[in-house]
Amino acid sequence: MFKSRHKLIFLIALLMIVLSAQMLMAQDQEPIRIAIAVAETGNASLFGQEQIIGAELAAAYFNEQGGVNGRPIELVRQDAATDEAGAISAFNTLIASDVVAIVGPTLSQQAFAADPIAEEAGIPVIAPSNTAPGIPEVGEFISRVSAPVTVVAPNAVNAALAMDPSITDVAVFFAQNDAFSSSETNVFQSVITNAGLNLTTVQTFQTTDTDFTTQITNALATNPQLVVISGLAVDGGNLIRQLREFGYTGLIVGGNGFNTPNIFPVCQQFCEDLIVAQAYSPLNPSEINTTFTQLYSDSQQRTASQFSAQAFAAVQVIVEALTRLDNITPIADLDQATLRSLLNLSILAGGYDTPLGSISFTPTGEIVQAEFYVAQVDMNDDGQTGSFTLVGGE
Ligand code: 1QQ
Q1: Which residue's CA is the nearest one to ligand 1's atom 7?
Q2: Statement to judge: residues 265 and 316 lie in one domain
């Protein structure tokens, strides 16, 4: 008895020494740098803030799990701002640095300008939120974890029609200076006309607009029972608020630009009942999503959201692809160009259990994802906070 207790204490002590030696080794090693180049300034920072949260939660979590075979990862933040110039400049800085891959930029409009530079330089880019058609096709090094509008957007209109089968007349609004909004509206419009509905008007605006009086007056003159909007968070949120202030009481479908709790303070109580299709649900019961939602709500005191989950998934894909590569070819032995290009192949070859569910990539870098959702906004009495409540899954 006495002997076996000593043995136990000895074994525990030994285990503690081994564990702390491993931790010291991991700390000693040069970190592997992964870039996150999203909108930290400008209007798209309403998305970018959520993306930074997701990426940082992933970096902390995977470091706790041992990083890449014991080597820690380090996130390198480079503000890609809200325009093309910001994304190009961030990408150029990162390409010239020692990062192995880039997660970014936030907007498709920026990606079409910056991704060709990364492609030319041979650095893997994982788009965390670019949903316009044609993004992975920019080149071999470009992939995405954000399912395209062609797959996601139809679910929102279908959910609205299921909620109110008497809808016949639909008005559409879209931001014409934004690549994502222009492609999403095409999807919305074909779903509407294919369903035999009457597309009463198509109103255009700019993502920099703040006053939508003309467009709203035009649209309301056609008596729509459903309004479908493709825009970004600030312009879109203001448009919704003004639609309600002008007396519109029918259903509103918003596109991917409304997929952040940061729209709540913009449209305030008028966000209520907004219908949005989502490529993520906090209710997904997988182990990694349970971990992610817990980490998110502990740090943010609110429910995890799509853009954070997608940024988390992007970092996770890179960490797991690096680990797989390292198991075959020690990455410490590779020069930068070889590492970046083998990492890209490893990214595309893998399957990943992420907060978005099980995902993989087509050879061109398009995400393969199984589960999509539709949510409706439920605002709290403060008119500033609220939540996306699931209305249907697919
Ligand atoms: C795109 C989008 C935006 C709404 C991302 C924030 O989907 O630009 O592709």
Answers
A1: 131
A2: no
pLDDT (average), residues 78-104:
98
Supply the residue whose CA is at minimum distance from atom 9 of ligand 1. 130
Does residue 88 lie within any of the structural domains?
yes
- Tell me 68's DSSP state: B
Asked, for residue 245, whether it belongs to a domain, the answer is yes
**Residues 171 and 217: beta-carbon distance below 8 Å:** no
Query: Residue with the nearest Cα to atom 8 of ligand 1?
Result: 107
Percent over 70 (pLDDT), the chain: 92
The sign one gets for the Cα dihedral 110, 112, 115, 117 is: negative
Instruction: Looking at the CA of residue 135, tell me the nearest atom of ligand 1.
Output: 9
Query: Please, which pLDDT band fits residue 393 given cuts at 50, 70 and 90?
Result: very low
Number of domains in the chain: 2
What is the model's pTM?
0.93
Ligand 1 closest atom vs CA 132: 9
Nearest CA to ligand 1 atom 4: 257
Band the pLDDT of 8: cuts 50, 70, 90: low
Q: What is the DSSP letter of 139?
A: -
Task: For residues 35 and 206, give the distance between their C-alpha atoms in angstroms, rounded to a whole number.
Answer: 30
Q: Closest ligand 1 atom, CA of 39?
A: 6
Strands 125-127 vs 251-254: parallel, antiparallel or unpaired: unpaired
Phi (first) and psi of residue 391, to 5 degrees:
-110, -20
Q: Is the CB of 279 under 6 A from ligand 1?
A: no
CA of 247 relative to ligand 1 center, distance in Å: 29
Rounded Cα–Cα distance for residues 153 and 131 (Å): 10
- Looking at the structure, tell me whether residues 101 and 162 fall in a common domain: no
CATH of residue 291's domain is 3.40.50.2300
Task: Determine if ligand 1 sits within 6 Å of the CB of residue 230.
Answer: no
Query: Does residue 385 belong to any structural domain of this protein?
Result: yes
Which structural domain, as residue segments, surrounds residue 214?
151-278+373-393
Question: From the alpha carbon of 107, which atom of ligand 1 is closest?
Answer: 8
